[in-house]
Design goal:
Chain lengths: 267, 335
C-alpha cells in the first residue's frame, strides 16, 4: 500500500518574539519587522507523521503552504526533512485571507496533485491559533476529517484507527482513506533535518503556483474571498501595576509579606 | 416571533450531560439577542436529549433537538451536516460554540459548509452600529495575546464564533423552568459515516496545576541563579504547585505539563508567584487572571512588573532564601 500524503504547513513569526510585534498607532498596522519567521511548530508533528508513514508504506509526501515569497524558507526546510515535493501557493491576491479563503486556496492547490490518500495538518498555527484551516479544507474537498489525533494506525485496505483527544479522555475513531487529519504534539517526536538533507534541499525546486496557474477566481481567495474582516487592533491594557519593592532583602521581604497578607494572598 | 435571525449556541453533550463550557455561553447569548432584537436558542445533538431541561433551567427559551441513539458520541460528519441543515432551514444570525476540542472542530466544519464567517477563541463579543444596522464584533487575542484583534463579518450570515472556555460565568439555575422544544427528524442513511467514533474512553486528567491555590513559577532567571531548590521549598511552604517557562522545561528542571503560557497551561490561582521571568506576553497570557500576582526579578524595567500586584527588584540568590525563611515562620505562626 503506497500512500500519497499531503502535509499543510505554515510560516509563522517566532512565538518567543510575539511580544515584539507592535501596533503602529498612526497607521493601525502591525509592525513585525526584524522578527524571525519559522516553520509553525505544530506542523512539525504533521511532517513527522507523514515521514514515518512513508517509511512504513512507501509513497510520496508533498508539502503545501500558502504564503508570501519568504515562506520558501519553510518549503526548503520541508525538503531537508525528507518530503518529495514542496509547493508554495503564492500570489499577492492571496493576502488578507481568513481561514475559509485560505482553505479554499489550499483545496484548489491540492486538487491539482492528482490522487491523494491522506492530508495531515498541525492542530493550529501559533500566530492565528484558530485551528480552522484543516477542518475547512476537509469540507471543501469533501474529505472526511478527524481532529486532534494523538495516535493513529493504518490497517490493510486503508482502514484508519485513531485516538482523538477530547477533554478528560479520548474518542476511538475509525475511518477509511482518503482522510484529512490534524495531529497533536503527543503523536510523535519530530526529527531534525540531517546535514545532507539540508544541503540537498538547497538544490531542490520549490514549485510556486499563483492564482493564474491555479485557475482560481480571485473573488474566492484573499481578502475578497474572506467572510471575515479585521475591523481594528488594540493593545491589551495591563493595568495591574502594583507596588515595587527594592533594597535590603530582609526588609523588602517583611514588607512583601505584609502586603501579601493585605491582598489576602496568604492563608 | 419568527425563527429567523436567532442567536444560537451549541449545547455540547457528553453522555447526554451538557458540558459546563456550553452553559457559559448562555448569558452572553441572551445579551446579544437583546442587543440585536432577537432571541436565544440552543442546538442539541445527542442520543436522547433526556436532560435538555437543564438548558431551560439555565435560561435558554428554546432548544432545537436532533437525537438518535447513534448520535450519543460526537460524530464529526453527521453532526456537521445536521447542524448545517438546521442553519439553512432556520437562518440564525449568530452561532456561538465553546472552544472545546469538539467545538473547535464542529464550528469550522459548519462554517465551511454554510459559507459563514468564523472567528476563534473570542474573549469578548459585543454589538456595534454599522451602516446597515448592527453588527457583531468579535474580539480575539492575536500573537499570543499581545494584541487584541476586532473581527467582523460584514455580509455573510451567520456570524460564527468559538468562545474561549472559562471567560463567561455560568448563569443562575432556576429548577423547574421549561421552554420550547423544536424536534427535527434524523435519518441516518442521509449522513456521512465515513468516519465513525466507536468508543469514549475517560481518562484521569492531571489538573493539579489548574486546581492549585498557589503556584510558584520559575523563569530563565531561576536557572541562571541556580535557585531551583529554593523555588521548590517556597512551593512546599505555601502548599503550592511548581511551574515554569520554556527555559526550565528545556533545562529539564520541570516537566512539559508544568509549563505556563501560550504553548503550555493557563491558570488562575489565588496567588501566582513569578521568579526570574521577564514577562513576555506569550508567558503572562497563561496566568493574567490570577487573583494576586507577585513577582521577583532583577531588572526593574521587566515587563513582568506591569502585570504584578506586588514586585521585588532583586537578586534571586539573596532574596529567595529570605522569603522562604520568613514565609516558613509566618506559616508556622498560623499553625
Amino acid at each position: 500500500m503506497r500512500l500519497n500524503i499531503v502535509v499543510c504547513i505554515k510560516q509563522v513569526p517566532h512565538p518567543e518574539h510575539f511580544h515584539e510585534i507592535k501596533l503602529d498607532p498612526e497607521s493601525q498596522t502591525i509592525n513585525r519587522r526584524g522578527i524571525p519567521a519559522i516553520l509553525n511548530p505544530p506542523d512539525k508533528h504533521a511532517l513527522e507523521e507523514a515521514l514515518q508513514l512513508k517509511e512504513r508504506y512507501g509513497g510520496t509526501i508533498t508539502a503545501v503552504s500558502m504564503g508570501p515569497p519568504e515562506a520558501s524558507q519553510i518549503m526548503e526546510e520541508a525538503y531537508a526533512l525528507g518530503v518529495d515535493r514542496s509547493i508554495l501557493l503564492c500570489d499577492p491576491l492571496f493576502a488578507g485571507a481568513d481561514t475559509l479563503a485560505t482553505a479554499r486556496a489550499l483545496a484548489i492547490g491540492i486538487q491539482r496533485l492528482g490522487e491523494v490518500d491522506l492530508i495531515l495538518c498541525g492542530t493550529h498555527s501559533m500566530d492565528g491559533a484558530t485551528g480552522q484551516v484543516g477542518p475547512q479544507l476537509a469540507e471543501i474537498l469533501g474529505f472526511p476529517f478527524i481532529g486532534f489525533v494523538r495516535k493513529m494506525e493504518i490497517q490493510e485496505r486503508g482502514t484508519v484507527l485513531a485516538e482523538r483527544t477530547i477533554e478528560r479522555g479520548y474518542l476511538k475513531v475509525e475511518g477509511s482513506l482518503p482522510l484529512v487529519l490534524s495531529v497533536t504534539k503527543e503523536i510523535n517526536t519530530p526529527r531534525l533535518p540531517t546535514v545532507i538533507g539540508i544541503m540537498e534541499a538547497t538544490q531542490k525546486e520549490i514549485y510556486t503556483w499563483d492564482t493564474k496557474e491555479l485557475g482560481i477566481d480571485p473573488a474566492l481567495v484573499g481578502i475578497e474571498g474572506s467572510p471575515t474582516r479585521v475591523s481594528g487592533i488594540f493593545e491589551r491594557r495591563l493595568s495591574r501595576k502594583g507596588e515595587l519593592l527594592q533594597g535590603d532583602p530582609e526588609e523588602v521581604i517583611r514588607k512583601a509579606i505584609k502586603r501579601l497578607r493585605e491582598l489576602e494572598a496568604l492563608r | 416571533m419568527s425563527s429567523k435571525n436567532e442567536i444560537w449556541i451549541w449545547a455540547e453533550q457528553r453522555q447526554e450531560r451538557i458540558e459546563p463550557s456550553s452553559i457559559e455561553l448562555i448569558e452572553k447569548g441572551k445579551e446579544l439577542a437583546e442587543l440585536l432584537s432577537s432571541s436565544l436558542a440552543a442546538v442539541y445533538i445527542g442520543g436522547s436529549g433526556e436532560r435538555i431541561e437543564e438548558l431551560f433551567e439555565y435560561g435558554v427559551p428554546k432548544v432545537y433537538l436532533l437525537h438518535h441513539p447513534e448520535l450519543v458520541l460526537y460524530q464529526g460528519g453527521p453532526y456537521s451536516i445536521l447542524f448545517s441543515r438546521l442553519v439553512a432551514k432556520y437562518q440564525p444570525q449568530v452561532i456561538l460554540m465553546s472552544t472545546t476540542y469538539l467545538g473547535l472542530e464542529l464550528a469550522p466544519r459548519v462554517a465551511a459548509l454554510t459559507g459563514a464567517g468564523l472567528t476563534a477563541h473570542c474573549v469578548d463579543l459585543f454589538v456595534e452600529r454599522h451602516k446597515d444596522g448592527h453588527i457583531l464584533v468579535q474580539v480575539v487575542p492575536g500573537w499570543g495575546g499581545n494584541l487584541m484583534v476586532k473581527i467582523v463579518c460584514p455580509e455573510r450570515r451567520p456570524q460564527m464564533a468559538t468562545v474561549k472556555a472559562g471567560i463567561f460565568e455560568k448563569p443562575q439555575r432556576r429548577p423547574g423552568a421549561s421552554g420550547e422544544v423544536v424536534s427535527n427528524p434524523v435519518r441516518l442513511d442521509e449522513l456521512d459515516w465515513r468516519v465513525k467514533a466507536i468508543e469514549l474512553i475517560e481518562e484521569e486528567e492531571d489538573r493539579s496545576l489548574e486546581e492549585a491555590d498557589v503556584i510558584v513559577c520559575g523563569g530563565w532567571g531561576v536557572k541562571g541563579a541556580g535557585v531551583m531548590d529554593d523555588l521548590q521549598k517556597l512551593a512546599e511552604t505555601l502548599k503550592g504547585a511548581v511551574a515554569g517557562t520554556r527555559p526550565l522545561v528545556d533545562a529539564g528542571l520541570i516537566a512539559e505539563n508544568q509549563m505556563i503560557g501560550i504553548s503550555g497551561k493557563t491558570v488562575n490561582p489565588r496567588l501566582f508567584i513569578s521568579l526570574g521571568a521577564s514577562g513576555a506576553s506569550h508567558f503572562t497570557t497563561g496566568f493574567l487572571k490570577s487573583k494576586v500576582i507577585f513577582s521577583i526579578d532583577q531588572n526593574p524595567n521587566a515587563q513582568i512588573f506591569e502585570v504584578s500586584d506586588l514586585g521585588i527588584v532583586g537578586d534571586l540568590k539573596k532574596v529567595l532564601p529570605v522569603l522562604v525563611d520568613e514565609l516558613e515562620r509566618y506559616m508556622q505562626s498560623r499553625g
